[in-house]
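The material for today's practical consists of a large collection of protein records. An example says more than a description, so a record of this kind follows:
***
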Amino acid sequence: MKGYVFHGPGQSAWEEIPDPAIREATDAIVRVDAVTICGTDLHILKGDVPEVRPGTVLGHEAVGEIVEVGGEVRTVRPGDRVLVSCISACGRCRFCREAMYGQCRGGGGWILGHLIDGTQAEYVRVPYADLSVHPLPGAVSSEDAVLLADIFPTSYEVGVLNGGVRPGDTVVVVGAGPVGLAAVATARLFAPSRIVAVDVAASRLEAARKLGAETVADAREAPEELVADLTEGLGADVVIEAVGVPETFELCTRMVRPGGHVANVGVHGKPATLHLEDLWIKNVTITTGLVDTHSTPTLLRMAAAGRLPTGQLITHTFPLDSMQEAYDVFGNAAETGALKVVLGGQRHDSVAVPAQQR
């Protein structure tokens, strides 16, 4: 079979690799039908994630069909169409028992495309299959379902739920990339009075508006002043950081009201200054987190009912063997306008499908 293999910083290739095989009785082998690329994959290719060893197949999001299971797998069987979660869960350790699967200490957590071979291949071995794959309802297409492997549960759990969004809140989402846009979409489920999206790209702000942001703001034009004007000087109830750089985190802390909540979703590679000299007196809550994917079954039900606009985030589709081209498009989003790219699935006959034409 073929897979997309990391060979070191700046080096990767779609190449022939050995077929995966059952190693543990809790494993499943999945034939991959649709995958997507995550910003974390780009960080790996840059050498920012040193735990990823050369020779590792990248990717942690997929939809496919079960072709083989180990002797202890009970919830799925060959022929089942499934979503492969970005998080694997042993189900036995303390954190799994508390549904904190991202912190699994039994050999799970974020391992696919990180510590073991991932999903950007024709087949993938999924450990702990009973808790790490989800049977898919027929109403959800492969292209839409693959976005529920990572970005939707990440934005929903680490942003919206951790942030405690409530009806009537003013919610600010800083960063209108895929995760930020998913945060806009899932924050709407809680009926906030307004959602403000902040970014530097006009195309992404327009996408945020289409997904439900009533107000958009250019990050370079003092968005904290706009938020102050909208809230009579109080600040936002919830601010979701979805970029992962010091400047945006510090911006979020300036926009939150006393007693409000900053929910950090972005993956930070550099230290950010925490201005406790200003924040200590404001009763501000700051949360961080790696997605646990405990919400995936709920999100799947909402997607099947047409309550999640997953398809609106897909801007480009490719055949599975066009992995390098897909990485080039996704990695140059400022020029290509890419939000999420999907490889495989039912729309693979077109290399690039603008969202407004679907």
In short: The domain at 2-150+293-347 is CATH 3.90.180.10 (Quinone Oxidoreductase; Chain A, domain 1).
